[in-house]
Specification:
Keywords: Cytoplasm, Metal-binding, NAD, Oxidoreductase, Zinc
CATH superfamily of the largest domain: Medium-chain alcohol dehydrogenases, catalytic domain
Distance between the termini: 16 Å
Organism: candidate division TA06 bacterium DG_78
Number of helices: 12
Number of domains: 2
Protein name: L-threonine 3-dehydrogenase
CATH class of the largest domain: Alpha Beta
Number of strands: 18
Mean pLDDT: 97
Bound molecules: nicotinamide-adenine-dinucleotide, zinc ion
Helix content: 25-40%
Low-confidence stretches: none
Order of helices and strands: EEEHHEEEEHEEEHHEHEHEHEHEHEHEHE
Oligomer: single chain
Family: Belongs to the zinc-containing alcohol dehydrogenase family.
Strand content: 25-35%
Shape: globular
Cofactor: Zn(2+)
């Protein structure tokens, strides 16, 4: 067998096709993986829609889409020592060079030469995929395979929640997409004492409540800043975890954060945003922190421990499961926002 089914971005226009392509061969330091489950991320949707960002960022068409996966190792390239056939794995999707200044100083997640599956090179919406051995995360048998596929975005949530103090703190999570929803669960697990979430989509508002957010506000209906002040004795929240990328949400959160608080931003706005640096940052004495990817691999260790402890239930967040052939249905649902995480099975 030399061919496999894959979801391929074939042309520089909206859409993608499921076609037969060659099964890739693992080179030195790489492994071939049979994909057991994969999941759709917002980035995949942007590539599918062919938005402005995708038009500028994606250079190598045709390209297999997707980056989140659970797989089984079925072949080892040369020089792979610490892995074996049959290992069930997830994978870090940022491929670091290992020799630049950032890699050498403990910041491989922002490697200068970094490449990303399904963005810079062929991805994992396929029956098989090649993964560098150094990016493989061997799965603890206690962790369900479906969860392995979503460990990568869960790692974004874990990275953001744990990027500063959280225990005993009042937290605002802006945006309850899959990563915002995961952040609600992780914040609860880590001892946040009040969790306020904001979201505009009713389906996701319901999910945020189910996951245990204490207050869920809808900026389309509520005066978010006023309500947050009311819920925090007029002080504002201790921590903001920005998970929407929405400019209004980003700016309102500066107002809802207490003086001296932590503002961690994961959400990606698609345009520059104007802020009052003196008023909102300097005199307020807050810490603003960009969050990118996952720490390699301390975030993965924590994420895996949360999952194997059984204390983090992702079941409510995984709302849909489709066959890989039905990827277009998944993309439509993602576009509507009426979903949590969507899994695809090759
Ligand atoms: P998502 O797009 O599914 O979620 C964003 C949510 O914000 C949506 O549910 C949307 O309805 C909601 N929203 C929109 N406007 C809002 C407003 N004014 N107030 C409150 N909520 C609002 O994305 P996701 O997959 O959950 O990811 C979260 C964000 O993190 C996205 O912006 C994504 O691009 C970004 N991201 C960043 C990294 C990184 O490494 N920095 C990695 C992955 C994702
Ligand atoms: Zn590097």
């Amino acid at each position: 067998m030399t061919k496999m089914k894959a979801v391929v971005k074939t042309k520089p226009e909206p859409g993608a096709e499921i076609i037969d392509v060659d099964i890739p061969t693992p080179g030195p330091g790489e492994v071939l993986v049979k994909v057991l489950a994969t999941s759709i991320c917002g980035t995949d949707l942007h590539i599918y829609q062919w938005n402005e960002w995708a038009q500028q960022r994606i250079k190598n068409l045709p390209q297999v889409m997707g980056h989140e996966l659970c797989g089984e190792i079925i072949e080892l390239g040369s020089n792979v020592k610490h892995l074996k056939k049959g290992d069930i794995i997830s994978a870090e999707t940022h491929i670091a060079c290992g020799h630049c200044f950032l890699c050498q100083t403990g910041n491989a997640h922002i490697c200068i030469n970094g490449r990303i599956f399904g963005v810079d090179i062929n991805g994992v919406f396929a029956e098989y995929a090649v993964v560098p051995a150094s990016n493989v995360w061997i799965l603890d048998k206690k962790i369900p395979k479906d969860y392995a596929s979503v460990m990568e975005p869960l790692g974004n949530a874990v990275h953001t929640v744990l990027a500063g103090e959280i225990t005993g703190n009042t937290v605002l999570i802006t945006g309850c997409g899959p990563i915002g929803l995961m952040s609600i669960s992780v914040s609860r697990l880590c001892g946040a004492t009040k969790i306020i979430a904001t979201e505009i989509n009713d389906y996701r508002i319901k999910l945020a409540k189910e996951l245990g957010a204490d207050v869920v506000l809808n900026p389309k209906k509520d005066d978010v800043v006023k309500k947050i002040k009311e819920k925090t004795d007029d002080l504002g929240v201790d921590v903001v975890l920005e998970m929407s990328g929405n400019p209004t949400a980003i700016l309102d959160a500066f107002k809802a954060l207490r003086p001296g608080g932590r503002y961690s931003i994961l959400g990606i706005p698609d345009k520059p945003i104007e802020i009052d640096v003196s008023r909102d940052i300097i005199f307020k004495y807050i810490t603003v922190q960009g969050i990118n990817g996952r720490l390699m691999f301390s975030t993965w260790h924590k994420t895996a421990r949360f999952l194997s402890s059984g204390r983090l239930d992702l079941e409510p967040i995984i709302t849909h499961r489709f066959r890989l052939e039905e990827f277009a249905k998944g993309m439509e649902l993602m576009e509507s926002g009426n979903c949590g995480k969507i899994l695809l099975y090759p």
